[in-house]
Amino acid sequence: MLKAPRWWLLRSKSSATAKRRLMIPADYSQTPKATGDISSVFPSLSGAVSPPLPPRFADLKRRLIQGHEDGLREGWNRLLAELRQETEVIRASGSSIIPELDFRDLNNVEKRTAFRDKLHKRGVAVVRGVVSEREALGWKELVKRYIQTNPLTKGFPSDKSAVYELYWSPSQILARAHPNLLRTQAFLMSHWRSSNKSALISTSHPVTYADRLRIRQPGDAGFALGPHIDGGSCERWEENGYGRGGVYNEIFRGNWEGYDAWESSCRLPVMSDLYNGPGGCSMFRMFQGWLSMSTTNAGEGTLMVNPLFTKATAYYLLRPFFQPKRGPKEVYGSAFLDSNNWSLEDETTSVLQGAVPSNCQELNVALHPHLELDNTMVHVPTVGPGDYVAWHCDTIHAVDKLHAGKDDSSVMYIPACPLTEANAEYLKRQREAFFEGTPGPDFPSGVGESEHMGRLTPDFVMQNIDAEAQRSMGLAKYDTKQSGMPGRERQMLEQSNEILDFV
User: Where does residue 20 rank: exposed (0-12), middle (13-18), buried (19+ CB within 10 A)?
Assistant: First the structure.
């Protein structure tokens, strides 16, 4: 038996120091979340009726654009023209618009460069063969046995689960710890940049985020998750949300072309879960992602993404400020969408189309007509076991409404997260959840897997998983003595060691 390290002995230490260090508002809640499942985050899945937003959101909207009204109108008109052009490109290209790269080519400069340019433009990618097909299929069989051994495992839908409330199964832990996956995550995160040279962040040290998994059977129509964006909803407009870093300031001034989706430093102070919702994400995930455990084609219960990317981001953020002069019943087709039919709101409302506190941001054709979601949501290319799919944290994504294939569509959700002060603080709390076998801090609370048979113990992880993977889980100290390490990165590792009680 391993001797309990200092961080385990101190794991109940107060978070007050962390709040002061990270300038977190004193009233920000880190209390356990309500029980639930993935439907708790999406009104479209749960059927919950969302009440109107309070008047303070109208005041917020007025403040965001005050003094920039003319620029906003001009920017809106430019954006609508660009959306029309890009929609035709996407309609003609389909899934081929999504860049792909083989894992074995991560060091191929020519292929990397072409991949980088497409990734920056589209915000989504497929990396082939990150792990072997044999490993990926083995993990699927292992997790299926884990579920069979523990029949009380929760999932959604409750009668025929497709998304399981599992975070600590052996398959998930082994997949997150795989050196190829960690390398792929670091590679993808290297496409971000920081204009603030003193910002504390390391993209070469991926941090584990314990998320769910999906095993969707043929014929399933229950997990019909429509277009949405993770990482908060109302928070994108709120001054104490994404406004803390001014992430979208250029968009709110009408200069959406000046918005840099790949700038990381402005996202470090962001609070993306102001309402402590069951599933609201407080972690800075540069990419959402999953590792495939099946061969899945379009229409077979797979992922759909919106390659409009930054233009879509600008649109869904600006949409609440504009209204049609004539509705869709008064004028049809392109005439309704024409910029001449749209103007700034006559009277500012509190509406943020599709945004509900404590839920993810959802989108649809009626609320976001210029995105033409029926045409711009495209399937990811066919994936096989061991392929990794990643999409930028601003990207609109969805899943097939119906799994029309013949075999299961199975993935483990494994996002790519950089090492930051806030992420290290989350990692510290998540580490305790690992020991207890309960869901991570961002997820619905409850007993989780605390009573599951076959769950891997911390002792097993410390004895059988390599040091880099242990560090990604917050279980081992970061090596700050490496030669050639930039000073900012060394400082980030030292800070993380302190946060994680490796001092």
Answer: exposed
- Positive or negative, the Cα torsion across 172, 178, 181, 185? positive
Per-residue model confidence as pLDDT tens digits over 161-186: 999 999 999 999 999 999 999 999 99
User: What does pTM read for this prediction?
Assistant: 0.93
Which helix (DSSP H) or strand (DSSP E) does residue 118 occupy?
A: helix 109-122
Share above pLDDT 90 across residues of the chain, in percent, rounded to a whole number: 83
What digits encode the pLDDT tens for the residues 386-426?
999 999 999 999 999 999 999 999 999 999 999 999 999 99
Per-residue model confidence as pLDDT tens digits over 79-96: 999 999 999 999 999 999
479 CB burial (10 A radius; 0-12, 13-18, 19+): middle
Tokens of 237: 């407009």
pLDDT band, very low/low/confident/very high, at 332 (cuts 50, 70, 90):
confident
E strand or H helix at 125, and its extent? strand 124-128
> CA-CA distance, 34 to 363, in Å (whole number)?
25
Q: Which secondary-structure segment (H or E) carries 141? A: helix 133-149
Q: Do 72 and 321 form a contact (C-beta atoms < 8 A)?
A: yes
**Do 496 and 419 touch, CB atoms closer than 8 A?**
yes
364 vs 155: CA distance, rounded Å = 25
CA 61, CA 355: separation in Å to the nearest integer? 14
Helix (H) or strand (E) holding 378: strand 378-379
Q: Are 402 and 224 in contact (CB under 8 A)?
A: yes
Residue type, 205: H
Residue pair 30/277 in contact (Cβ under 8 Å)? The answer is: no
